[in-house]
UniProtKB/TrEMBL annotation, chain A:
<feature type="domain" description="ABC transporter">
    <location>
        <begin position="19"/>
        <end position="264"/>
    </location>
</feature>
<keyword id="KW-0472">Membrane</keyword>
<dbReference type="GO" id="GO:0016887">
    <property type="term" value="F:ATP hydrolysis activity"/>
</dbReference>
<dbReference type="GO" id="GO:0005886">
    <property type="term" value="C:plasma membrane"/>
</dbReference>
<dbReference type="InterPro" id="IPR027417">
    <property type="entry name" value="P-loop_NTPase"/>
</dbReference>
<dbReference type="InterPro" id="IPR017871">
    <property type="entry name" value="ABC_transporter-like_CS"/>
</dbReference>
<dbReference type="GO" id="GO:0005524">
    <property type="term" value="F:ATP binding"/>
</dbReference>
<keyword id="KW-1003">Cell membrane</keyword>
<comment type="similarity">
    <text>Belongs to the ABC transporter superfamily.</text>
</comment>
UniProtKB/TrEMBL annotation, chain B:
<dbReference type="GO" id="GO:0043190">
    <property type="term" value="C:ATP-binding cassette (ABC) transporter complex"/>
</dbReference>
<keyword id="KW-0029">Amino-acid transport</keyword>
<feature type="domain" description="ABC transmembrane type-1">
    <location>
        <begin position="19"/>
        <end position="220"/>
    </location>
</feature>
<keyword id="KW-0997">Cell inner membrane</keyword>
<dbReference type="InterPro" id="IPR035906">
    <property type="entry name" value="MetI-like_sf"/>
</dbReference>
<keyword id="KW-1003">Cell membrane</keyword>
<keyword id="KW-0812">Transmembrane</keyword>
<keyword id="KW-0472">Membrane</keyword>
<feature type="transmembrane region" description="Helical">
    <location>
        <begin position="157"/>
        <end position="182"/>
    </location>
</feature>
Length: 265, 241
């Protein structure tokens, strides 16, 4: 660990939540994927969204940086209420582009398929957004990038290209890329689902370390043990509705999701 | 076989001029055409409806008519029409409009724009959506996603195909001998007319075309191999087993 800013420290939940979603509704064609979901992620805490495939958990996560635009509802991210343009019926029809870009710099994402940019080196992937979105100098961005590559144990591969790395290594680089923006909120969309089983732990280890640092994170995962272990809050989504939420213990004990949890418990 | 004419400095001059003109035409058409091709691809993928429609019509017309017909159309048709405009002979554009090279380059640029435009469009569509989504998720603007992520990846994907397009372009160049532009074929025609030798000049320029194609292929292969992020398994110098 060299230079560079310290990560956001444990902050009490008295400050505004990192994200507050109110009654989100999202359709894909005729299919209602989110049926009025409300969710709050307090600053400095970890929230995991669990649920069966098709329950809407990825869609909910993707609404948090507006990769999916909800059709109805309210959303506040990092102290800012999203300015939706609505039609007379109240349906959301557009967004404020500039606000969107500003917010996305504060809420970064780790994808299931890593989605690294294969024509940029490891370091190039990490410094791209800090330089072009936050306007940092190359020198400053590089220092930041090296710091976070060190953090995920990938500093020695800074000049390699993504195609030369294993899945686990790529996902760790993707985590460094998300950290280098120094976001208020980190989103993880099934970060280990595309990995070989023997690579899962190296990525979970990094995420657990971030949780211990007190970073604000929202993750969608199928790793039940892991979710139970790192989360302050667990949200069980079933067919587009929150079926249970609360501390991991509460949710795991809830009869409504017992059946779903059974294989993991 | 009689190659004694090769020592004639006049013929050497024709051949040299023909070779230089060929390379120039290739370079100008490749650069101009590929820029146009990116525009055509973008228009079809993301342009407003009328522009997308226009790009489709352009592609269809250019790809649907023979290159030689297009060349005649621009040189004898458009060129002669322009010539008739009052005052054009005094304008600053006249030296350009009198020059067959201008019409050859124009025709070829449009041709490359249409053919390679489709190649680039296909390549842009095959860039994994997740890579572009990651760009947007990190707050890059639409234009930044395009020129930092989408286009470089698309070009990487279609480089081997574009190499093929460039080779076809090189071998379309002899068509310009029909509009009195001194290319290699024109040089060979002059030599044939004056020496009554048919095969030798043709053999010579065929050899020059072949050599140029090989050099072009290797150079573009080099570009391909040095493209950032190229996978090691594909790093073979000659694309043969």
């Amino acid at each position: 660990m060299t230079s560079s800013p310290p990560p956001s420290s444990h902050s009490p939940t008295t400050t505004a939540p990192a994200v507050k979603a109110d009654h989100l509704i999202k359709h894909f064609g005729d299919l209602e994927v989110l049926k009025g979901v409300s969710l709050e992620v307090p600053e400095g805490t970890v929230t995991s969204i669990i649920g069966a495939s098709g329950s809407g958990k990825s869609t909910l996560l993707r609404c948090m940086n507006l990769l999916e635009r909800p059709d109805q509802g309210e959303l506040a991210i990092a102290d800012e209420t999203i300015r939706f343009t609505r039609n007379p019926q109240g349906d959301i029809i557009d967004l404020d582009r500039r606000q969107l870009q500003r917010l996305r710099a504060k809420v970064t994402m780790v994808f299931q398929q890593f989605n690294l940019w294969p024509h940029l080196s490891v370091l190039g992937n990490v410094i791209e957004a800090p330089m072009r979105v936050k306007g940092l100098s190359r020198k400053r961005a590089t220092a930041l990038g090296e710091h976070y590559l060190e953090r995920v144990g990938m500093a020695d591969r800074r000049d390699a290209y993504p195609g030369f790395l294993s899945g686990g290594q790529q996902q760790r680089v993707a985590i460094a890329r998300a950290l280098a923006m120094e976001p208020r909120l980190l989103l993880f969309d099934e970060p280990t689902s595309a990995l070989d089983p023997e690579r899962v732990n190296e990525v979970l280890g990094v995420i657990r370390g971030l949780a211990d640092e007190g970073r604000t994170m929202l993750l969608v995962t199928h790793e039940m043990h892991f979710a139970r272990e790192v989360s302050d809050q667990l949200v069980y989504l079933d067919q587009g509705r929150i079926a249970a939420s609360g501390t991991p213990e509460d949710v795991f004990d809830d009869p409504r999701c017992r059946q779903f949890m059974a294989p993991a418990a | 076989m009689d190659f004694s004419w090769l020592s004639d400095p006049f013929y050497q001059g024709y051949l040299w001029e023909g070779f230089i003109n060929t390379l120039w035409l290739l370079a100008v058409s490749a650069v101009g055409g590929l820029i146009l091709a990116v525009g055509v691809a973008m228009a079809r993928l993301r342009g407003p409806r009328p522009l997308a429609w226009l790009a489709w019509a352009f592609t269809t017309v250019i790809r649907g008519t023979p290159l030689l017909v297009q060349l005649f159309f621009f040189y004898y048709g458009v060129g002669r029409l322009l010539e008739g405009l009052p005052g054009i002979r005094d304008s600053m554009f006249w030296p350009l409009l009198r020059d067959p090279f201008f019409f050859a380059a124009l025709t070829f640029i449009l041709s490359v724009g249409a053919y390679s435009g489709e190649v680039i469009r296909g390549a842009m569509q095959s860039v994994p959506r997740g890579e572009l989504e990651a760009g947007r998720a990190f707050g890059l603007s639409g234009f930044q996603v395009l020129y930092r992520l989408w286009l470089p990846r698309a070009i990487q994907l279609c480089l081997p195909t574009l190499t093929g397009e460039m080779i076809l372009l090189l071998k379309s160049v002899p068509l310009v001998s029909t509009i009195a532009l001194m290319d290699l074929l024109q040089a060979a025609n002059i030599i044939r007319d004056e020496t009554f030798l048919v095969y030798e000049p043709l053999l010579l320029i065929a050899g020059i075309y072949l050599a140029t194609t090989i050099v072009l292929t290797l150079v573009l292969r080099l570009v391909e191999l040095n493209f950032p992020g190229m996978r090691p398994t594909r790093r073979r110098w000659l694309p043969i087993r």
